[in-house]
Model the fold of this input.
Amino acid sequence: QVQLVESGGGVVQPGGSLRLSCAASGFTFSSYGMHWVRQAPGKGLEWVAFIRYDGSNKYYADSVKGRFTISRDNSKNTLYLQMNSLRAEDTAVYYCAKDLKYGSGSPIDYWGQGTLVTVSS
Amino acid sequence: SYVLTQPPSVSVAPGQTARITCGGNNIGSKSVHWYQQKPGQAPVLVVYDDSDRPSGIPERFSGSNSGNTATLTISRVEAGDEADYYCQVWDSSSDHFYVFGTGTKVTVL
Done:
């Protein structure tokens, strides 16, 4: 069965950096687009970034553009999110998520359980 | 940026029908997806491409989309349907790409 397991969350000071990882299994990782979606405590879902199945295209939310970088290693079935210049408003649970199908605008059919990132001094 | 507006809350008695709206400019021209999220859990896809259901999702969940409003309908509501629900679209006309609605808390009375 599909499994997405995030890791790398924790407490970091404002201005600091963190790299999240997502280990994928149970499907052909190299065939699907992948997302990072976050949820601040008590708030709604916010899409963060997307990467195409082959890494050829990457899209970012305005709120993280220039600070976050999404990447993937299809040989390791792993998705990454490099987060730099972190701010208090980046505090959230970060979910790794998989596209249901090929093509732009696909819905998300599987989500990880999330990893908490807390930006605080 | 493209904005999706949902009512903050909807209350419904067991066995009745809950309708959750998602408003957006000409949303009828886009494909709308709906997610259910229970406390402490990851979201679950319940309807995609306006009205399709993933395998394992009960037929009680249905969707429609026209004009400026998309709607998720939950028929014969059960206590287990109590959750937050989010609509989502892909907006190719802006830099925001994947947009989530503001979310609706469904309370089963």
Summary: Chain B is about 0% helix and 45% strand. Chain B touches chain A through 28 residues (CB under 8 Å). The mean pLDDT of chain B is 95. The radius of gyration of chain B is 13 Å.
